Amino acid sequence: MSLDALFDPESIAVVGASTTPGKLGHEAMANLRRFDGPVTPVNPNADGELFDRPFAASVAEADADLAVLCVPAGAVPDVLAECGEAGVGGAVVYAGGFAEAGEDDLQAALAETADAHGISVLGPNTSGFLRPGAGLYASFVGGVERVDPGDVAVLAQSGGVAHAMAFRAVREGRGLAAMVGLGNRANVDFPAAVEYFDSDPATDAIVLHVEGTDDARGLLETCRAVETPVVAYTVGREDVDAFAESHTGALTGSYVLYEAGFRQYGVPTVDSSIQGIDVAQALAAGPLPEGPNVGVVTAQAGPGIIVADRLRAAGAELPTLSEATQGTVDEHLPGITYAENPVDTGRPMPAFGEVVAAVAADEHVDAVVVYELYEPGLGLPTEALDGLAAETGTPIVFATGGDVPDEELAALSEGGCTVCFSPERGADAAATLATYGRLHANAAATEVDR
Amino acid sequence: MSLDALFDPESIAVVGASTTPGKLGHEAMANLRRFDGPVTPVNPNADGELFDRPFAASVAEADADLAVLCVPAGAVPDVLAECGEAGVGGAVVYAGGFAEAGEDDLQAALAETADAHGISVLGPNTSGFLRPGAGLYASFVGGVERVDPGDVAVLAQSGGVAHAMAFRAVREGRGLAAMVGLGNRANVDFPAAVEYFDSDPATDAIVLHVEGTDDARGLLETCRAVETPVVAYTVGREDVDAFAESHTGALTGSYVLYEAGFRQYGVPTVDSSIQGIDVAQALAAGPLPEGPNVGVVTAQAGPGIIVADRLRAAGAELPTLSEATQGTVDEHLPGITYAENPVDTGRPMPAFGEVVAAVAADEHVDAVVVYELYEPGLGLPTEALDGLAAETGTPIVFATGGDVPDEELAALSEGGCTVCFSPERGADAAATLATYGRLHANAAATEVDR
User: Fold this and answer.
1) What are the start-end ranges of the H helices in B33-75?
2) Burial letters A422-447, b for 16+ CB under 10 A, else e
3) With contact defined as beta carbons under 8 Å apart, do A249 and A243 qualify?
């Protein structure tokens, strides 16, 4: 089943559209105003217009690829059947009250109707999806238009977590290629979504949020098969099964089994939503790490200790730098600082960027993490780092703090660095890059051997 | 030895003041412009003025309580002796190149001179301290004037970590009562600093950053003796000793021993700088938790699962709510959501605040954590939560996401909630409150029994 009608429609109907602000059918229409194609509000009890679009009395009149259903749970199967008869190929079902509430029969009826009509259904029990690059904001949450286009796709079991990650990306000055809340996954599950965004040219990395799934093997096989790098935020470390089952109708998996399973299939796992979007951003920015060895450069020793400590605790390697690198570092440093790995420059300095460049070029280093507390008189090494990751083949995570001007942060990002706002976040992103590099080192070696 | 001359001076001399932007002696003077008292630049090789203050040729001419030393390491003992003869009672020494660089003799000379003249020395090898409420910004890092007055004191072994935490507080819209980088602790160590800020009326909670200390018992005894709540960010989980020793001249302690030791003395430990400032803010906002039981209210299930999962993993209890509370919750909820603990309201709703209020008032609950993805049409429950923590005696952590207006966040903070920008941060802060409550439950019971 193609997901094009769902995720790449040419026309949209909002069934249950409402003129009452706050109602799903109003907020969904408001967010879809940015879509560059027909968006038809459907409501047999309304007339006139909503956001300058005339109401249709039925979905048959709307001529839509995608139907966004803002109707109560009980009405969903019948509305889906109408959609099928009207040629709709994709649907978003916001309503809760299905498997997550013990209403398995209702969800089965939804799935049966959707399958019979060949409709790809996102949900039920989801807050929707976004594809900012297509101007497609199929969520009922206000403010999602602030999510700009980017190159990471967030595919989350929970719409709430998907939105939390999307708005966090906004706060970090980043965009997203897509944000999807899968909800109860009546007939669109993780594998289909991962395959779809793997083939999306705008998506350079995928971050999953997984509470539990009936088809873990299918998901893992898919993650291994796709070309796009994937990381997974697996939730369910403790016994929250009763609550989780009431959420999306699936038992949470065993955390340890999930983590081991994902790694076996080449997917690093993370411990928080911010770590997920940080490392996905780093994987999307590229290049991909080819081993577990991290070079650390810091302008302040204390944060450097935090970074080194977290890297080691997460299983990353901090290799000794080559003699050539140490020579370059020694040239720039006064000698009283710690010039192995981490390299500690004492304070930001004019040659800070050259020190980072030497470490990034070191043959023993697969990824670099930098920490620098911003000092206005000294600035960030934006010029020295511009294009450095691409030139050296080494991904660079730049963690910083202080009163940094937005334009310096933007310059670092545009130059290929992934910017994070604390030593811990920089370390956690770099540690996950190291895990990715370790898991894919053999694959990379095998490809070279062929 | 009183620390008043150091932390509460009436007059300040900047020794080694410089007219060259970027130099320590220039940046330090620039930041001290906000101080409401005499600040004298001292430099025998300069004349004229710096920031409208005439240069003095020697510290003796400056008549200062506090001397901020922007001179090279080798000159420090002699300059300190001059300071002592001039009646200076406190000094900040920025220079590195002492015990952290193997120069134990130089540090011993510094300490000996300081002790002989009764000078309290912050450092050496520190980037200084801030007391925003006193307009006192004794740091050389640009932008520190953005740290507003608040009620948490950050006492960090590393000046770099201290500044990272201070600027993070700024990003979160919070202020600080103080920020101190202790550095090499030549004659002012953790116990004296903790005692000083315990007696500071502006300080309602203290967060420590500890890499290692020669006098762990002294620190622990002090933490137990003071009235102000203390939390500790202990760094050194892995073997980073060689690097850490090169930093502040102390071996990092064993992480596990530190963590156990702190808890034995009533001090919860945290795993990141943001968790440290979050929970310190919650302890400062008050009231203090009296047990380990956390009530969770969420408007979105997925983030609620994250919160519950992290709370349990950290050892917090999620008690069953009382029948009265469950009755109140049932009145407001449509019945399909999960009305035990966590309470899941499905979406934000008009009665969301009343649900939080019922949980906060529950006799089984010692702390509350709320998660709500902001929906503009529904808003945050600022009115219902205004003063609720104080009324119920239950601290409230409000985690949120989305496009939240600053004024709603400010209203929540002013109403006594601690606001965090992710489900994970809300959970981590609440889990640490639960640990605090568990560690102090017996003490509270004992006091009641007396």
Assistant:
1) none
2) bbbbbbbbbbbbbbbbbbbbeeeeee
3) no
* pLDDT-above-70 percentage for chain A: 91
Backbone region of residue B185 per phi and psi (left: phi > 0; alpha: psi in -120 to 50; beta: other values): left
In chain B, the residue whose alpha carbon lies closest to the alpha carbon of A30 is B377
- Quick check: helix, strand or coil at residue A128? strand
Helix or strand run (H / E) with residue A222: helix A216-225
Mutate to test the interface with B, among A182, A239, A240, A406 (most CBs of B within 10 A): A240
User: Which residues of chain A make contact with B158, given a CB cutoff of 8 A?
Assistant: 300-303, 305
Q: How far apart are CA A59 and CA A74, in angstroms?
A: 18
Is-cis flag, bond preceding B342, omega within 30?
Answer: yes
Query: First vs last Cα of chain B: how many Å apart?
Result: 34
CA B423/CA B310 separation, integer angstroms: 10
* Burial grade of A376 (CB within 10 A; 0-12, 13-18, 19 or more): middle
Specify whether the CB–CB gap between B279 and B430 falls below 8 A.
no
Angstrom distance (rounded) from CA B51 to CA B47: 13
Q: Convert the pLDDT of each residue in A26-37 to its tens digit.
A: 999 999 999 999
Distance between CA atoms of residues B112 and A161, nearest Å = 57
Closest Cβ opposite residue A422 in set B143, B273, B337: B273
Residue A447 pLDDT more than 70? no
pLDDT reported for residue B428:
98
User: Mutate which of B300, B311, B421, B428 to disrupt the A interface (most A C-beta within 10 Å)?
Assistant: B300
Candidates A100, A248, A402; nearest CB to B163:
A402
Q: Do A160 and B237 touch (CB under 8 A)?
A: no
The whole-angstrom distance between B303's CA and the closest CA on chain A is: 6
Query: What is the predicted ipTM?
Result: 0.93
A143, A170, A313 member nearest B238 (Cβ): A313
**B168, closest residue in chain A (CA to CA):** A401
Chain B residues near residue A171 by CB distance under 8 angstroms: 421
Which residues neighbour A437 within 8 Å (Cβ) at sequence distance 6 or greater?
A288, A289, A290, A291, A292, A293, A366, A367
Overall average pLDDT of the B76-99 stretch: 97
Task: Please say if the pLDDT value at position B84 is more than 50.
Answer: yes
Give CA torsion, residues B44, B50, B53, B54, to 10 deg.
30
Tokens of A97: 């009250």
Please tell me the least confidently modeled range out of A22-31, A205-214, A388-397, B312-321.
Answer: A205-214
Instruction: Tell me the HSE value of A148 on the side-chain side, using a 13 A CA sphere.
Output: 8
More confident residue, B254 or A12: A12
Distances (CA, A) of A19 to A62, A71, B350: 18, 14, 19
Q: Which residue out of B305, B336, B338, B340 would a mutagenesis test of the A interface target, given it has the greatest number of A Cβ atoms within 10 Å?
A: B305
Taking the CA atoms of residue A146, residue A150, residue A153 and residue A158 in that order, the dihedral angle to the nearest 10 degrees is -10
Residues of B in contact with A336 (CB under 8 A): 96-97, 101
